[in-house]
Design brief:
Layout (H helix, E strand, L loop, with lengths): L2 H7 L15 H4 L3 H4 L3 H14 L5 E2 L6 H6 L3 E2 L7 E2 L7 H6 L10 H14 L5 E6 L1 H9 L1 H10 L1 H24 L4 E5 L8 H7 L1 H11 L5 E6 L8 H5 L5 E4 L5 H7 L5 E6 L1 H6 L3 H15 L5 E5 L9 H9 L3
């Protein structure tokens, strides 16, 4: 499939593309803990989601602990919540020197590559996107998010050293996901949304760009995700990544972002995953969706989505209500 052409025509399909995978546990009867350890269960979960909801594309889990675990980070697992990193592993030059670049397949990365392969066999009526973390967001998990923000000023060479190793691995990992058959990749770089334009231009954008340039083809395209609340002021740096599509969180007014993004770039978002999908009601999510559609209806490059990944225990009736709105 020529995904470059598919992406250009995607808004005309009038279908939403929420980041919707984890709630599939409610359809398949497995726990989140079991799901994140098995590519087979993940693919079956994606199939169940695709069978119930008419999404524009299928997307693998947005599990931002996978790559960090491969580097050696300790991870907290739960039956009902997404895994999370519990402690940093890089705090200076010695720990940076000891930081080993993983091999694709280490920890759970092999299962996540296998997810794509199996999902492509099960889901044949729409594209399948793999999910990965962005370089600065991964570096922040290895170093602690508060620490990395200070170290960007105090020890920039240390941060760049981590980013070099992270980027080396992310290129190999994203290439493996492409080789497994992914039609595209959703790269989540939320931590970059906390940076100033100058810091983002130094510590995020060039590394994202390197990954995209190394991996993207006309048959495998990148969607860049950033749910930070400062993205409106980071538009230039975000566009400089070179991605063909951008996915934004609910912290911003998406209609304002659409005025800043060229029409040849796709913009996706941004119904609140926590406030609406998880904690809203069918009526409130319908109202929020209709309101967003009204605000963004004049933009031909807009695709309706969630603001980030939809939490695992979000009520199914809320998700149903979102898809019931006519685009």
């Amino acid at each position: 499939m020529n995904m470059t052409e598919w992406l250009k025509n995607a808004p005309h399909a009038k279908k939403p593309m929420p980041i919707l995978s984890f709630p599939g546990t409610q359809l398949t009867g497995v726990t989140v803990d079991a799901l994140v350890r098995s590519g087979k269960l993940q693919a079956e979960c994606m199939e169940a989601v695709a069978n119930r909801w008419d999404t524009l594309a299928a997307v693998t889990l947005m599990d931002l602990s996978v790559e960090a675990e491969a580097f050696g980070s300790p991870i907290k697992f739960s039956d009902v919540e997404v895994p999370s990193v519990t402690a940093p592993i890089v705090d200076g030059e010695d720990s940076l020197a000891a930081l080993k670049v993983p091999t694709v397949g280490d920890a759970r990365t092999g299962e996540y590559v296998n997810t794509v392969k199996l999902a492509k066999e099960l889901i044949t009526d729409r594209p399948v996107f793999g999910g990965t973390i962005g370089p600065f967001s991964l570096a922040g998990r290895l170093m602690d998010m508060t620490e990395i923000m200070m170290l960007c000023y105090e020890e920039p060479d240390l941060v760049h050293g981590v980013l070099e190793k992270v980027t080396q691995f992310q290129i190999a990992y994203n290439l493996a996901i492409r080789k497994a058959g992914a039609d595209g990749i959703v790269m989540a770089e939320p931590a970059a949304g906390m940076l100033s334009p100058a810091l983002m231009a130094e510590f995020s954008t060039p590394y994202v760009k390197r990954i995209i340039e190394a991996v993207e083809t006309e048959n495998c395209v990148f969607i860049y995700h950033n749910c930070g609340n400062s993205t409106l002021s980071l538009t230039k740096e975000i566009l400089d990544t070179g991605a063909k599509a951008y996915h934004f969180g609910n912290a911003i007014d998406l209609s304002k972002m659409l005025t800043l993004i060229p029409e040849d770039k796709i913009v996706m978002g941004n119904i609140d995953p926590s406030g609406q999908f998880r904690n809203g009601t069918p009526d409130s999510i319908r109202e929020a969706t209709l309101d967003l559609l009204q605000k963004c209806k004049g933009y031909p490059n807009f695709i309706l989505s969630s603001g980030c990944d939809i939490p695992p225990v979000s009520p199914i009736e809320n998700i149903d209500a979102f898809f019931a709105v006519k685009l």
